[in-house]
Amino acid sequence: MYWKRLFLILICFFGFNFTVHAQEQSSPILKLDAIADQALQLTKMARYDDAKQLLEYFSDEFTSVTLQEQVFTMDEIRIITVSHHQALQAVKSPSLEKQNKVDAVISFRLVMDALTSQYEPLWTGMREPIMNAFQHMKEAVETGDKENYHELLNYFLAKYNIIQPSLKLDIPVEKLQEIDAKIDYIELNRSNLQKNEQAFAELESDLQKLFDGVEEDETDPSIWWVIISTGGIIISTLSYVGWRKYKGQKEHKKPKKLND
Predict the structure, then answer these.
(1) Is 0.85 surpassed by the pTM of this model?
(2) Which spans are transmembrane here (predicted)?
(3) What's the CA gap between 172 and 72, in Å, rounded?
């Protein structure tokens, strides 16, 4: 009987969490995020007409959501609008290479994920290509390989530009401005390798902190509340069951003593 009560309590608890999760899944922001993801998959498959139609459908849904509900700030609306426009123009361009089209839609997809992700955002998955490009670029500077350096710098800038819009949603403005300023400085002085050595050292540290900081903070503090709440319910229930069992055994022994 007591174990049945424990089972019912746990069912109610997890059932509540499931209901909350289902409500979150039906939110308009998650619907927009799903459309962005589908547009990316179509672009990767070179189904540009379908991707175009889906991005246009996103525009209609986004307009409807922003008019009916205040779910986005003005900065978020601006970032979404710009990244969406760039993605749409990319898939519509007949002359743009496939990789450039995919990169534009990835950037848009990462923006939507940054708005919906509660833990580690998708843009952190760009750490390896960005940091690898940076390391090769730094080696080219050290060896004085100008030709290879320019190619690597262009590749690095292309990869960083993919995540830059989503960084605006996840990183403090002042910190992002510092990173962007150093990247702009390196690009402006691309012909002077020696002048960039100090900027490279500072930028490398900033990029490492950028990715490391997100990984350290990926556990939502609310998760600990859930863990503590769950543990508290189970401990309290088990304590109650144990107390009732002890009380029942004690009462069961009393008649024997009286009979003696």
Answers:
(1) no
(2) 223-243
(3) 17
pLDDT digits (tens, 9 = 90+) for 37-69: 999 999 999 999 999 999 999 999 999 999 888
C-alpha dist (Å) from residue 145 to 142, 150, 159, 175: 8, 9, 21, 31
Predicted pLDDT of residue 251: 55
Residues 6+ apart with CB under 8 A from 152: 133, 136, 137, 140
Cβ–Cβ under 8 Å, residues 164 and 180: yes
DSSP letters, the chain, are: -HHHHHHHHHHHHHHHHHHHHHHHHTSHHHHHHHHHHHHHHHHHTT-HHHHHHHHHHHHHHHHHHHHH---S-HHHHHHHHHHHHHHHHHHH-SSS-HHHHHHHHHHHHHHHHHHH-SSS-GGGGGHHHHHHHHHHHHHHHHHT-HHHHHHHHHHHHHHHHHHHHHHHHHS-HHHHHHHHHHHHHHHHTTT-TGGGHHHHHHHHHHHHHHHHHHHHT-S-HHHHHHHHHHHHHHHHHHHHHHHHHHHHHHHHHHHHHHH-
Question: What torsion do the CA atoms of 46, 50, 53, 55 make, to the nearest 10 degrees?
Answer: -50
* Identity of residue 102: V
